[in-house]
Amino acid sequence: MSLAELTDEELIKEFQINNTLDAYELLVKRYKDPLMNFVFRFVGDRDVCTDIVQDTMIKFYLHKDSYREFAKFSTWIYTIAGNLAKNELKRRRRRTIFSIDNNDDERSIQIEDKAFILPDRAADSEIKNEIIQKALMKVRPVYREVVILRDIQDLSYEEIAEITGLSLGTVKSRINRGRTHLQKLLRKIYNE
Amino acid sequence: MGISNYDIESKNSKLVEELKSLPKVKAPENFELNLMTRIQNQNFGEIKEEKQRFSYFKFLAPSAVVVTAFIVFFIFFYPSQQRINNFQPQAVVSDSQGSVASVKMELAQNNPGIKESVTHDRKIVDNNSSVPQQGNSGIAKYPINKSRSVSLDDYISGESERSSNVQQGNVVNGGEDVPNFDGFFVRQKSDKETIEKYRSVIDSLKKAEMRADSIKKAQK
Questions:
Q1: Which one of B11, B12, B38 has the shortest CB-CB distance to A58?
Q2: What is the pTM of this model?
Q3: To the nearest whole angstrom, how far is the Cα of A101 from the nearest Cα of chain B?
Q4: Residue A31 above 70 pLDDT?
């Protein structure tokens, strides 16, 4: 049986026991894009997002033994990425507080790089996506995280609860609040 | 009680659709290459240092907060209350008003004219419930070093003047087990008889000198 046919959990087990670097590389290949998408939507900065995902993969490499079999690999790696992204937001907030000339709007909301947008995308949908991202960045991080995990990453409520360490009820209510807030913001932006 | 999944999804279905339709961001081409290079070179950057830095913050920040809270509490809240010095021996609770009353009673015995007012004062003192009660013996225990002290009653009545004046000061100390506190000296009244005696001696000496001088002048 080739490594490519193994599940995530089997691959990490292989990496933990035999220190097989190919298994690690395969997991990186599987998760680099979903994590990039998640972190970008959460942080809103492409360069920072690449660094965070790199750090996530290095953390995974260094602390591979901290993964326990009973958890899903996907939730474990999302938790690492989410924590690093939150740290980045905290750091950024601290920097904003201490900086004398802060132009918050300009710095915190960086619109998606044109190079990563499919060329066949219509101009209006491009603007729409930018507006959604801009609105998403204005939602409080606690709500933003769960909305992204549910609506953009398509994860189940149970998986989100495991990633965030919250109860199922809290996850649902946060998703609901996050969506309502996002809806309000989008309505406001469209009216402007 | 719970929020059903159907309710959540259907409520903002349009928004959910829009979010789902957002383009997926992909990792750059050289992502894996950079990652493997970092791993091969053991270039883990901040990730390895993170643990050490975190531990400093973890222990210093809460302790700093606690210390600051204590300082703020003692500076702003504590002065309004009475400060208790643990190193200072606790003074024995004494009936100060009672002792004043006893002095007044003694004065009244010597001067019958002021007896009425004193007895009136006494009554007020007795009726005052805030005055601390004395023990069964009725005598308050004072922290006074007997070897170097003088009774105030004797002092006021003048009897202490007759005692030896070897001790220049009388000391009230803070407790039995505590070293003597050299303070609160009571000034002794000067002895008029002795002064008069020495004055007359000095005067006679001066007169004798003057006489001797006048005799010398006459001889010249």
A1: B38
A2: 0.55
A3: 27
A4: yes
